[in-house]
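Example 3.2
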Amino acid sequence: MKTNKKRSFLFLFLCLVFLAFISSTFTGCNAFKAKGGQVQEQTSKQDDKYGIIPLTKASVERTPIQIKSVLYVKERVNLRKSPNAKSKVLVKIPTGTVFDRDALQQLRNSLPESVVVVLDEAYVDFVDPAQRLDSIELIQQEDDGPPLVSLRTFSKAYGLAGLRLGFGVMSAELATMLHRVRQPFNINSPAQVGALAALEDSEHYERTVNGTRSGMSFLQEAVCKLGCSCHPSQANFFLIDVGGDANQLYEAMLYKGVIVRSMNAYGYPSCIRITVGTEEENQRFVTALGECLRELHYV
């Protein structure tokens, strides 16, 4: 019964179903533009390649921020500057760290009530339950602070990335505003069927989450033994400081048939980011990484 009630609440507030998070951002920005608002984008690097807000033709004030540490979210929260009273704030930090309820409240307290705080919770399923922020509970409370929106996806823990399916949880008032500008027929029937089936398949969900956690532990331990340092993560990916040029390591790994992401574009020139895979994939990565580190004389 508890599961059914929770699911009923979820779909009661299932107000923004989109093909990808890009289309949801497009919709949201245009909705606030229609209300005379300005969009402020806060990003970790000025030339962040995921800067998609200009595509909406909304009024954009771009505010690059300097991240002092990828380890502590509170330092990042302290760097937030309150935008004007008609702004929507998007914060993109590609590190896999989390913030707690107090940190979120600190951010909300620094913002006017006209601001909408959007939480991208695509990886929330992988977060340690002891550290997980219950955003849905906060949305239900409807307190006096800035309204909250939680963005979720079926692409990660549920394994439906090919369907490009996700949803937003928010108040009925915000849902009504977004429905006015969302694209019609923005989700097909197979995707809806797949989403409902995924919600019923708890066995696959638990297997994916537990397998990711064990894979994360294996990878971080193996990487540290190779002489690199790992940044803590509550997602299904994590950052690795390889002690040298990340772009060169990316190229070297590519020659071995292993694709990693260089984080140079994000302002971390010595870091790569990897996603936890199967046991076989994880072992292949560790072997290739060790070979490349020695070939490049990073260790």
